[in-house]
Design a protein that fits this description.
Length: about 375
């Protein structure tokens, strides 16, 4: 319970309204994620052109999308966008534009108005300032959806001409968060990576150190990454043949164009992973999980579907895995072992389902 509101108001109105709001927002997010990604990328292109036109010689070290609480209080749902050089705050910041986030914060305002309306009955116990404080206290629940939209746009964004033409420092990062507060790392790119140092760093298997980090275009063959937290990590174009990624958290990781032949992903969490154009042939992926949406109410935000576009699953052992909301139609399925797998709301082509059981067929759509 939030300390400055009565327990009765908390149980009768705040918690039920919050639950209803988050459920509506999650449904909207899952249904419209491609639209929201496109809007973010379009905004990025506009910002990139602004930088190109106004700051010709400036190299960008940080691109920061700032959540301004003073704006939120005034129901202005635009994140201020700032650019910095390699020294971060030390050399000052330059505001370069805004990013409109009304598509998520419309639910925030709707909840705000409902609480104000219900608070009228609590004379001398709840006032407008109390409700404002309540809403500021839960703002991260809404901001997390903006973070997810940004992170899930990175593959497409970094493949645009505007991104490629942006003058960047040797290390370039995209952040978002409250102004002058702790930021969420959206993306980082390091021009000159030292493979020896990276391997040494990864071998330490540190908690939460590798999330959303840049491991693109590296030779990580036979690398021991067992039980690592690699959420959102970017392995695009890397060599990971015979790598051990078993029992690891890989949700949201980017493997597009990577080589994962004969890798080990036993009992790994693979929800929201991008496996586009990835060779997984001969890999062990038993007891793995690929789920779309929220598994339970404890999750802050639901996972997006794992991407299996032109993914080679030849001779891949997927026994006893769980798949929910996954589209297999563009995957290459040759001698793929789906024994004892559980399917829910998955999509297959007719010719792909020859060896599935009647129970498994109940959880798929042939199209």
């Amino acid at each position: 319970m939030i300390k400055y509101i009565p327990e009765h108001f908390d149980c009768t109105y705040f918690k039920p309204i919050l639950k209803e709001t988050l459920e509506k927002m999650e449904e909207d997010f899952q249904e419209n994620i491609e639209k929201y990604k496109s809007e973010f990328i379009l905004n990025f292109k506009s910002i990139s052109n602004e930088i190109k036109n106004k700051y010709v010689d400036k190299k960008i070290g940080y691109l920061s999308y700032n959540l301004m609480l003073t704006k939120i209080i005034n129901k202005n749902y635009n994140y201020d966008i700032y650019i910095y050089d390699k020294d971060w705050y030390l050399n000052g910041d330059i505001k370069i534009g805004e990013y409109n986030v009304e598509h998520i914060y419309k639910y925030y305002e709707e909840m705000w108005n409902k609480l104000l309306e219900e608070g009228i009955g609590y004379i001398f116990k709840i006032n407008k300032t109390d409700i404002n404080n309540v809403m500021l206290n839960i703002i991260d629940k809404f901001h997390n959806y903006i973070v997810s939209i940004m992170r899930n746009s990175i593959i497409e964004l970094t493949e645009t001409e505007e991104y490629k033409n942006l003058k960047k420092e040797e290390t370039f990062s995209i952040h978002t968060g409250k102004f002058y507060d702790i930021f969420d790392l959206i993306y980082t790119e390091k021009e000159n990576k030292n493979i020896i140092k990276i391997k040494r760093w990864l071998s330490k298997k540190l908690d939460e150190e590798y999330c959303n980090e840049d491991f693109k275009n590296l030779d990580l063959n036979k690398m021991d990454l067992e039980r690592c937290d690699l959420r959102g990590a970017d392995f695009r174009g890397s060599e990971l043949k015979e790598a051990d990624l078993s029992y690891s958290i890989l949700n949201g990781a980017k493997f597009k164009g990577a080589d994962l032949r004969n890798s080990n992903m036993i009992s790994s969490s693979l929800s929201g992973v991008n496996f586009e154009n990835v060779n997984l042939s001969g890999s062990k992926m038993t007891y793995s999980i690929m789920r779309k949406g929220k598994i339970n109410d404890l999750m802050e935000i639901g996972e997006l579907a794992t991407v299996l576009k032109n993914t080679d699953l030849t001779n891949v052992d997927l026994r006893n895995s769980i798949f929910e909301g996954i589209d297999f139609r563009e995957a290459i399925l040759n001698n793929t072992n789906f024994e004892e797998c559980v399917f829910k709301k998955c999509k297959f082509k007719k010719e792909q389902v020859l060896n599935l059981t009647k129970q498994q067929l109940n959880g798929i759509k042939i199209c």
